[in-house]
Amino acid sequence: MASTKNEVSSLTKEKLVEMLEKMLVIRHFEEASIKAYQQKKIAGFLHTYIGQEAVGVGTLAHKLPQDSVVTTYRCHGLYLALGGNPKAGMAELFGRITGCARGKGGSMHFFSKEHNFLGGHGIVGGQFGVGIGAAFKSNYDEDNAVSMIFFGDGATVQGTLHESMNLAALWDLPAIFICEDNQYGMGTACTRAIANTDIASKAEAYGIKGYTLNGMDLHEVHDRMGEIIKEVRATRRPVLIHMKTYRYFGHSVSDAGLYRTKDEVDSWKAKDPIQVISRGLIESKGLSEDEFKNLQKKIKSQVQEAVDFADESPEPPIEELTQHVYMDEAGNP
Amino acid sequence: MAVMEMKEAINQALKEEMIRDEKVFILGEEVAEYNGAYKVTKGLLDHFGPKRVIDTPISETGFTGLAVGAAMMGLRPVVEFMSFNFSFVAFDQIISNAAKMYYMSGGLFNIPMVMRGPNGAGPRVSSQHSHNVESLYAHFPGLRVMSPSNPADAKGMLKSAIRCNDPVIFLENELAYSLKGEVPDGDNLVPIGKGDIKREGTDVTIIAWSRMMSLAKAAAEELAKEGIHAELLDPRTLKPLDMPLIAASVKKTNRVVVVEEGHYFCGLGSQVAESIYRDLFDYLDAPIQRIAQGENPMPYAANLEAATLPSVEKIVMAAKQAAYRA
Ligand SMILES: Cc1ncc(C[n+]2csc(CCOP(=O)(O)OP(=O)(O)O)c2C)c(N)n1
Asked: Of the four, A269, A307, B6, B285, which is 20 to 30 A from A248 by CA?
């Protein structure tokens, strides 16, 4: 089920600029978070989305309000692509009460109720059930939503994916399984972990459709995902998408990345979606160099504002520790 | 005697046992080419090759189940969980298979298998990555649970665990991997079920294991300044507990504080306390004090994380309460 790249993209300049802007927000946000980590303002694990921006932005451009999204610990990018507030995101990384999870979740656990963003999840394979549950809800309420479930290549060998694909196929759940194949699960190349690296072909085992897309190509992701999401919305049949992409940085900030060569990393950076799209806009869609520079400037200062906001925000009050363990009073100790 | 870090001591135990017994092999995520997520298995792939040091996919159910089957057929697997948080994915294999096989087969199939890796809170990794699992695994008959507090113990205990014919849960701690200490040369086994007095004292017994022993040591220093002499008891094996050692100490001090990193409710400390009440009630001069993690998932924020974890101050306070000196 190979993909076909749409040579003529349906995208207008406005739409492209909008998506470029989202990708830039993610890129700058992640760069700022790495810097803040080095300054010890952020702790624990920090997994950045840099390199994978086109996957999230191109896909989520089609999200309707009732749709839901769930992903792994590498969750900042999707949160921002959904329109999550960078200030609340950065404050979460800083562990402040103004964070999107009140400073309780940290880097791996971003959530946003208004976007039905059901979280960043720390256990590899832990989000599949959540995702098909959201798809189940959509059928239950007949709200015509779809559920987008993002995961890494490393998660394709967890039993939960296969149980969840089976359930979704068996019960006609509108679940869109999106594998962000960045070629590595930590230091393990996918060829050393996955018996059959043609991820999309696994769909066949469950009688559903599988697609392979170039996750570095925003046009392809946007256009193909538009068609696929539309189809799932109508048919209620789950699908499996194999997005080929790459993370430019280590698995997390503490990973030196010795298992990859510089040449390999550079060859992927050469396909950088932000560069490709901005160049394309400038060369053939009439975006001026100045407009592009101003856009970058605007986003940089937006991210800086987020950092300042996080820095100035207070830590959670100590009472917060025992809040949200249970919702009903009887449960509280 | 050589001074080394905890992770080095564990590495030596693995290496020596693999040399001693060719049935021993290691499997887990990133244990081979990456030398372990925390470098505990450093150099083992080079030494023993990919037949015995095996990188697995992220398939905890699968590879833990594989280890159980291999053990039934006579191999001696050492499973590394990158952290014990991920052992929950394999929980069914550990509980329904590893723990029960010997009994339910009427003694036909034993499971000589070690499951090891870091337990407890790493720094600032929030709710899903900070579990303490000792009370969970200690609950099920069939499993033994061990958790060392220093490099010498780690080496001697792991060697005993690998030679044990039953499944052993061996709990390390990420924050203690670089803890340094003297490790005796040679084949020094620490027997399963044997605790150790880490500091002699007369006024109160502080029972603590793993990383909590470092906190207890600091607390004992503080208490000594105020004339309270704490005895530090490390059970080392959490199941079975070394009750004779605990009894001797309680008979001497008549006062007890139990410190654990895990949650309070049904924490292992409640079992330790119950065992003392049951066997040694007449020797107690004060209620047993327990220090444990709060009744909430681990938060990410620095101040909240610090507030919910045991601390030196909390241990000092509890010891004073036990000694009626608060
Ligand atoms: C069940 C479980 N096992 C192990 C881990 C440790 N771990 C965190 S991320 C990761 C690699 C995952 O790789 P992949 O699914 O490809 O996602 P990527 O990080 O590349 O986005 C591992 C092994 C975990 N979080 N959960």
From this structure: A307
